[in-house]
């Protein structure tokens, strides 16, 4: 990618306006700023590089110059609180679809990691703002490693992360990939707005890397293992415990370590 062409996309909501910055702290910060200034539903903020890209659980998201897709979408979905969790599912679905269309067989490791052969290639973060318990706005941040060579990945994630380059052996053009991603995000977002929850849930479960597998989880005060017997974007993950009982966990309560 030399410079980004900012032409709006012929989509219903997401990508009708796209703003691009060479270097930002975090595209999520910029998307929140746009929302504060009255941004419309679906505005996309893209950066060539992030200095303080953020992931879930307060982690840093390494986002070197033009080596990946670093974007955020400003959303005003007018959804009930429980449906807001579905935003994470549609983000992961869009990423997995794009990778699949390039013959990269990705799966979704609950709730939001997109993985190839167990290694994370992309992640989604949803930040929300509520006014008197009503969801008012959200920012969906998507980070996808595209042209980062395996040896360029930070030491602490080298063994657990990957990129399109590492998987395919050659670089991919970032701009067309970004446009494909936005088009898929718009597609799934439309289904969500049209209350096609079953379609979304089925697709999300079909991509699952964890359903019906033993997984290990870590919560604030304990770590344990169990079989993932069900998934639901709103209810979370259902884990069968050693005594046979089923417990549902939300993504902000537990962190899923790798399937085992
Ligand atoms: C995760 O898996 O923990 C989520 C990672 C999300 C990273 C993206 S990169 C673009 C956007 N801006 C950020 O600061 N974070 C998200």
Descriptive report:
The chain has five helices and twelve strands. It is of the alpha+beta class and 260 residues long. The strands form two sheets. Strands 1-2-3-7-6-5-4 form a seven-stranded mixed β-sheet, sandwiched between helices. Strands 11-10-9-8-12 form a five-stranded antiparallel β-sheet, with no helix packed on it. α2 crosses α5. The radius of gyration is 18 Å and the shape is globular. The structure holds biotin (BTN). Biotin binds next to α1, β3, β6 and β7.
Give short descriptive properties of this protein.
seven-stranded mixed β-sheet, globular, five-stranded antiparallel β-sheet, 5 helices, alpha+beta, 33% strand, 260 residues, binds biotin
List the helices and strands and how they pair.
Blueprint: E1 18-24, H1 27-36, E2 43-50, E3 68-75, H2 86-101, E4 107-109, E5 113-116, E6 119-131, E7 134-145, H3 164-168, H4 174-193, H5 197-206, E8 214-219, E9 223-232, E10 236-240, E11 246-249, E12 254-259
Bound molecules: biotin (BTN).
Mean pLDDT: 92
Figure out the total of helices. Answer: 5
Q: Helix/strand/pairing class, anyone?
A: alpha+beta
Would you count the extended β strands for me?
12
Radius of gyration: 18 Å
Question: What kind of assembly state do the chains in view correspond to?
Answer: single chain
- Assess the beta-strand content as a share of residues: 25-35%
Helix content: 10-25%
Q: Major sheet: order of its strands?
A: 1-2-3-7-6-5-4
Please describe the biggest sheet, giving its number of strands, its sense, and whether it closes into a barrel. 7 strands, mixed
Order of helices and strands: EHEEHEEEEHHHEEEEE
Give every kind of bound small molecule, once each. Answer: biotin
Distance separating the two termini = 38 Å
What does the overall shape look like? globular
Q: Which residues sit in consecutive blocks of at least 5 with pLDDT less than 50?
A: none
């Amino acid at each position: 990618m030399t410079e980004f062409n900012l032409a709006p996309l012929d989509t219903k909501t997401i990508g009708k306006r796209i703003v691009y910055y060479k270097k930002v702290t975090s595209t999520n910060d910029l998307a929140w700023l746009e929302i504060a200034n009255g941004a419309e539903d679906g505005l996309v903020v893209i950066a060539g590089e992030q200095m303080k890209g953020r992931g879930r659980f307060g982690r840093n998201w390494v986002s070197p110059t033009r080596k990946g897709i670093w974007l955020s979408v400003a959303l005003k979905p007018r959804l009930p609180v429980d449906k807001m969790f579905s935003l994470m599912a549609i983000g992961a679905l869009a990423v997995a679809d794009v990778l699949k269309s390039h013959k990269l067989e990705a799966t979704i490791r609950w709730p939001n990691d997109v993985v190839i052969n167990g290694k994370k290639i992309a992640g989604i973060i949803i930040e929300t703002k509520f006014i008197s318990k009503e969801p008012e706005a959200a920012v969906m941040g998507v980070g996808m490693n595209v042209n980062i060579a395996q040896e360029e990945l930070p030491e602490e994630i080298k063994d657990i992360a990957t990129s399109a380059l590492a998987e395919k052996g050659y670089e991919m053009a970032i701009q067309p990939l970004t446009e494909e991603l936005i088009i898929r995000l718009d597609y799934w977002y439309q289904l969500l707005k049209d209350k096609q929850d079953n379609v979304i849930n089925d697709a999300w479960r079909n991509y699952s890397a964890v359903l019906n597998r033993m997984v290990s989880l870590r919560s604030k005060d304990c770590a344990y293992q169990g079989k993932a017997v069900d998934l639901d974007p709103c209810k979370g993950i259902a884990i069968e415990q050693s005594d046979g009982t089923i417990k549902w966990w939300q993504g902000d309560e537990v962190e899923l370590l790798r399937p085992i």
